[in-house]
Amino acid sequence: MYCLCAAGLSAILPKIALAGPEEAAARVNEITGGFASDDDLIVLDLPEIAENGNAVKVAFDIDSPMTRENYVRAVYILADGNPEPDVATFNFSPAMGACFASTRMRLSKTQNIHVIAAFSDGSFSSASAKVKVTIGGCGG
Amino acid sequence: MAKVKPRVKVPKTGEVGEIIEIKTLISHPMHSGRAVDGDGKLVPRQIIHSFRASFNGTEVMSVDLKPSVSANPFFTFPFRVTESGTFDFVWIEDGGREYTKSKKISVS
Fold first, then answer.
1. Domains of chain A by start residue, with CATH
2. Are strands B13-14 and A100-105 parallel, antiparallel or unpaired?
3. A56, A64, A110, A119: which is closest to A88 by C-alpha?
């Protein structure tokens, strides 16, 4: 009976295949070539508990002089429990003068958020945090 | 579809070298292609997939958006003002439709 029920569910929702941490980790490797570790250059602002997964605020502040010689060229936001790990990619330029930004994202369930900063010299930094989601935001 | 309306908040004035904060919002449902409507039919994907901000014709930042970005995409980001000029913001929807907004700043 249980099996039947599961089969029925998957027939109704064929596309809800969640990425999972492995796919997210593979994506992190793809972006960084494996050369990123969590450090304290990135300050993440994420809720510990998100009551509504439809709109979870994510903000980051990265310590960078943002000069022509040394700036953050891109910031990747990944969510390892969503149907696809990529949430948004920010492309930055030295003209910004500082490196912070925020947006709102959908989270389908409790999961880890990874933020990767790509620097102009080719190096990477990352930061991760877990967000507990009470009501998922997949809209299904 | 509900009317798509871009909104931007930029300070009207600034001092040379000052870092201002820009806030942008566009009302858009961001249909992820995974949700079903009231009749149980899958709503096709229709999202804003790209956002670009330029100052006096030079792009200063952009964002590539995926379906995981919430409805009514909202962004804040900094900009260091060096001269008076015009910001141009463009949001690009699946299918290529563009929504634009401009804001002027006078710098002393």
1. 18-133 (2.60.40.2470)
2. unpaired
3. A56
Rounded to a whole number of angstroms, the distance from the CA of B70 to the nearest CA of chain A is 5
pLDDT tens figures, A47-65: 999 999 999 999 999 999 9
- Report yes or no on whether pTM surpasses 0.95: no
Sign of CA dihedral A79, A83, A85, A90: negative
ipTM of this complex > 0.85?
A: yes
Write out chain A residues lying below 8 Å of B61, CB-based: 90-93, 96
* B 11-70: CB under 8 A from A: 19, 32-36, 42, 55, 58-70
* Three-class SS state of A3: helix
Kind plus residue range of the DSSP H or E element containing A94 = none
Separation between Cα atoms, residue A104 and residue B18, nearest integer Å: 26
- Chain A residue with CA closest to B38: the answer is A140
Query: Is B76 in Cβ contact with A88 (below 8 Å)?
Result: no
Closest CA to B22 of B98, B108, B86, B95: B86
- Cα–Cα dist B32/A74, whole Å: 24
Model confidence band, residue A18 (pLDDT cutoffs 50, 70, 90) = low
Neighbours of B64 (CB within 10 A): 16
